[in-house]
Amino acid sequence: MTTKDHLARHDGQIARLEQVMTALAEAQVKTERDLSKLARAMTALAEAQAKTEATTRALSRQWQAYLNTLPKN
Asked: What is the DSSP letter of 71?
């Protein structure tokens, strides 16, 4: 293999490596963006769950209060 062929081969390998590194960087940015979206969704879900738990406790107290008004056998 001549020096010219060797250099051309290396240039091709370097070009492919640059493409792969660019694709990797783009994938990393997308992953970070997706993780940020996921974190926001998880926060919203946790807030909704806390509200649901509070509502459930309140309904439970109301139900128990109603049951306490019924005549006992």
From this structure: P
State how far the Cα of 22 lies from the Cα of 34, in Å rounded to an integer: 18
Could you tell me what percent of the chain has a pLDDT over 90?
Answer: 95
Q: How far apart are CA 61 and CA 15, in angstroms?
A: 69
Q: What is the pLDDT of residues 31-43, one digit of tens each?
A: 999 999 999 999 9
> SS3 string of 16-64?
HHHHHHHHHHHHHHHHHHHHHHHHHHHHHHHHHHHHHHHHHHHHHHHHH
| CA distance linking residue 61 with residue 55, whole number of Å | 10
Tell me the whole-structure pTM to 2 decimals.
Answer: 0.63
How far, in Å, CA of 68 to CA of 59, rounded? 14
